[in-house]
Specification:
heterodimer; A: 437 residues; alpha+beta; MetI-like fold; 3 domains; six-stranded antiparallel sheet; B: 291 residues; mainly alpha; 2 domains; 11 helices; disordered N terminus
């Protein structure tokens, strides 16, 4: 090698290094610049102003705790006790939580010496350690208090409404009613609502104890009361999860059934006509490109909201994806096996059945099962748009903005459902085509 | 000897044939049963879905074309406005693409760390491998809409909730795909670097990443395609971008179908464009590896 050659090689190597160095620094720099652009395009500095931290606190505390409302109607003087303030969670007449005592004056013990007393004539006394005794009188539409002018920030007071927030509970007083919220950890009434005879019974009592409800045996009664629980709606939730999985199943399998023959049409090996091939491929590209969102919107107009619409949206979109994958798999089949089958005198259909299908089945099954899992997630999202399944229940629960424990419950169920489908499709794949490793 | 084998052979062949036929029949029976169960599941599933749907399948079937026809005819009448509308919604499209791009980038970085920390032989803390794997499993299992809806409640509508939601799911999904690749890396380079006293991050950066980069980039591009669709869908539930505009114009109904049509066109064009571009680059990346 001459010196000139060597110099040229060195020069080339130098240039190569320089280029690599440029890329090594350039790509991170471009990404950093892009992030800076996004930082301003998405208005992240303004996000702190828009974010509602109170919502975050409500969400975080409500998702693992529940509150019991003690409400006095200041017109009729009637007092109600209800979990989450809902009609479904109301204590039956004559029953009340054990932290409420007294007959004429109702004494509510919120814990740690925070005590609220509902006195006759719509008077209320609130004892909070380290603060003066608060007296409130409700009259017509106004409330009068003995509160001083400068208030700590956990009390808000006007002549229409007084709100007191303590770590032990919240108290709101208006002319029309006086309300105390007492917070407890846990998901209340998850098993039985208050009107069920099984409420408050231990598992052992239900399984082995005396018959609680004379009309039903303990286990059937308990299961049916739990299943029909009006607060948590276990039956509806189970149906919703079933609907979501059904959408994914029908959509994926239907797409596979339709895409298989179309895949033959689009594969060069099996479809001699260029025009047919090109048309099928463009059809696949089209249905894939339109995307599940638009299909959902279009189909919901024709079929109305529900699981069928979601299933069809998944079916149409995935027909495109499957068609593409299947036709690629079909192009790669080994010709020798087909020839072998043909040499036995097999007719074309038999050649496909015994020469082609066994070769592509593992690829097909692997893809179908993978999509089954991923479509469970899509079905949740599509359900939120088209109105079906657990996605809809989740959206509704979030939009009412109060039942955060139900939201947490649904989220846990959704994650469990997706993980189950992931495991199930992996298990089925292992059973049908054997494990890779 | 010869007699025995001659008289024995037909018997053996008969036996083999009989057991073979029995095996074939059993397989056919199992195959038939599986097919039967599958057909029953499909038919009954279809009936259940049809029952629980607001409108029936057969009643709705002939109406499928109605809505697209309405939209198209109105858009055709106002076709002169279409370019202006497309220009009007272009910023929303940019937002949708930005959401997808940022969340793919963040998700890829997160997935990279999760996969390196969760792969045997590469992990910095081998004891914590199961922990990082479970984390990525859970991140993968959460549908984007769950996080997006919760974050919209806290942060208000806009692109940020969608971005975070998609990024979390992407990190989990990519972590799984990345770790499948990084399990097959050649550890010799890593060992060589370790012998020179390289730190963990140097070993990963110089020993592992050059081996896995083409596959990682290819998976990330695939994820970007998926995320464009996801970011359009999340817009529909209030997270900004093109989906949000689509919902608004659809809620309006007839009279603003030209806007819906403009958004359809933009969305369709974008998805097809990025599909084509990314599949071209992915092919190039994986082909280069085969050589």
């Amino acid at each position: 090698m001459t010196t000139i050659d060597l110099d040229a090689t060195k020069f080339d190597a130098e240039k190569l290094f320089q280029r690599k160095r440029l890329i090594g620094f350039g790509i991170p720099a471009v990404i950093a610049v892009y992030f800076v652009y996004i930082f301003f395009a998405f208005d992240l500095p303004g996000l702190a102003g828009r974010a509602n931290m109170e919502n975050a606190v409500t969400l975080a505390s409500d998702s693992w705790s529940h509150k019991v409302h003690v409400t006095r109607d200041n017109r009729s003087g009637e007092i109600t006790y209800a979990v989450e303030g809902e009609r479904k969670g109301r204590y039956p007449d004559g029953q009340r939580p054990d932290w409420v005592t007294g007959d004429d004056a109702i004494i509510i013990d919120l814990g740690r010496e925070h005590i609220v007393r509902y006195l006759p004539d719509n008077r209320t006394e609130i004892e909070i350690p380290g603060f003066q005794l608060i007296e409130v009188q409700a009259e017509g539409r106004t409330v009068t208090t003995n509160l001083p002018d400068d208030l700590p920030d956990w009390i808000s007071a006007s002549d229409r409404r007084v709100g007191i927030t303590t770590p032990e509970g919240r108290i709101t007083l208006t002319g029309a009613r006086t309300e105390v919220f007492n917070y407890f950890p846990g998901w209340e009434l998850f098993w039985f609502t208050l009107d069920s005879p099984y409420y408050g019974q231990s598992l052992a009592t239900i399984l082995f104890g005396d018959q609680i409800d004379p009309a039903r045996s303990n286990i059937t009664g308990a299961v049916s009361d739990w299943w029909n629980n009006a607060m948590w709606r276990h039956k509806d939730v189970a149906w919703a999860i079933g609907e979501t999985i059904l959408m994914a199943f029908l959509g994926t399998m239907g797409a596979a059934i339709i895409a298989l023959p179309l895949g033959f049409l689009a594969a060069k090996r099996f479809s001699p006509f260029m025009l047919v091939r090109a048309a099928t491929r463009r059809l696949f590209d089209f249905v894939r490109g339109v995307d599940a969102l638009i299909w959902t919107v279009v189909l919901a107009r024709a079929f109305g909201p529900g699981p069928l619409t979601g299933a069809l949206a998944i079916l149409i979109t995935d027909t495109g994806t499957f068609g593409k994958i299947f036709s690629e798999a079909l192009e790669n089949v080994d010709q020798k096996q087909i020839e072998g089958v043909a040499s036995t005198g097999a007719k074309p259909l038999q050649r496909y059945r015994f020469g082609v299908i066994p070769q592509i089945v593992p690829v097909l099954l692997a893809q179908i099962l993978y999509f089954l899992e991923s479509n469970t997630r899509s079905a949740t999202i599509i359900g939120a748009i088209t109105g079906g399944g657990i996605g809809l229940m989740l959206t509704q629960a979030i939009q009412t903005q109060k039942d955060w424990e139900e939201v947490a419950y649904y989220i846990v169920l959704i994650i469990a459902m997706v993980m189950f489908m992931d495991w199930f499709s992996g298990w089925l794949r292992g059973k049908l085509i054997g494990r890779k490793d | 000897m010869a007699d025995i084998s001659l008289s024995g052979a037909p018997h053996q062949v008969d036996g083999i044939q009989a057991s073979y036929m029995a095996q074939v029949q059993r397989r056919r029976l199992y195959g038939g049963l599986t097919l039967l169960i599958f057909v029953v599941l499909m038919v009954s599933g279809f009936n259940v879905a049809d029952d629980r749907n607001a409108g029936g399948f057969w009643e709705g079937l002939h109406q499928i074309g109605d809505y697209p026809a309405d939209v198209l005819s109105e858009a055709w009448e106002k076709r002169a406005d279409l370019p202006a509308l497309i220009a009007k919604y272009f910023p929303a499209l940019v937002e949708t693409i930005n959401i997808a791009a940022v969340s793919t980038l963040i998700g890829a970085i997160g997935g990279l760390f999760l996969s390196l920390l969760g792969t045997r032989g590469l992990a910095k803390w081998p004891l914590l491998i199961p922990l990082f794997r479970r984390i990525s499993d859970i991140m993968r299992a959460v549908p984007e809409i769950v996080i997006a809806l919760v974050l919209i409640f806290v942060l208000g509508g806009g692109p940020v909730p969608a971005m975070i939601a998609i990024a979390i799911h992407t990190a989990g999904a990519l972590a799984k795909m990345f770790s499948e690749v990084s399990e097959n890396t050649d550890l010799k380079a890593v060992e060589g670097l370790a012998s020179t006293g390289a730190t963990w991050s140097q070993r990963m950066l110089l020993g592992v990443l050059p081996q896995v980069a083409p596959n990682y980039v290819s998976y990330t591009l695939l994820r970007f395609e998926i995320n464009i669709r996801a970011s359009a869908i999340l817009g529909f539930v209030g997270a900004g971008g093109l989906g949000y505009e689509l919902r608004n114009s659809m809620a309006w109904g007839p009279g603003r179908f030209d806007e819906a049509a403009a958004i359809f066109i933009l969305l369709f064009g974008t998805i097809v464009f990025f599909d084509q571009v990314s599949s071209r680059y992915r092919n190039r990346l994986t082909e280069g590896q085969g050589q």
